Amino acid sequence: MTLAIGVGCRKNCPGGAIETLIRRAILRAGCAEAPAAIYAHAAKNGEPGLFIAAERLGLPLVFLPPQLLQEASPRAETRSVKVEALFGLPSLAETAALAGAGAGSRLVLARISAAGASCAIASTDPQ
Question: What is the pTM of this model?
Fold first, then answer.
């Protein structure tokens, strides 16, 4: 099983805010297994908060190309008008989680948001 955390954030979102949201998402999803990594859109590669959160959580941070996120977009459950306008995707967090978990993955936790960040969790577990 692969468990993937997808994250989206506003410019200069603090690492502590992203870390707190990820921890809350893991608790809310009831994920007993450890996540494989944190996944984000390649356009977010310059966001220091993502690197800080990944380091504090002890998880790899993987930036995905837009094409992979686009391929996962039909499986997203929520939509953000702003994200659609900026990136052409329904949700950065959900598409990153789904793309990170791989083909056939499903959302374990749809997007939650707080303090300028959003987070979703996807898994390949058929459940």
Answer: 0.93
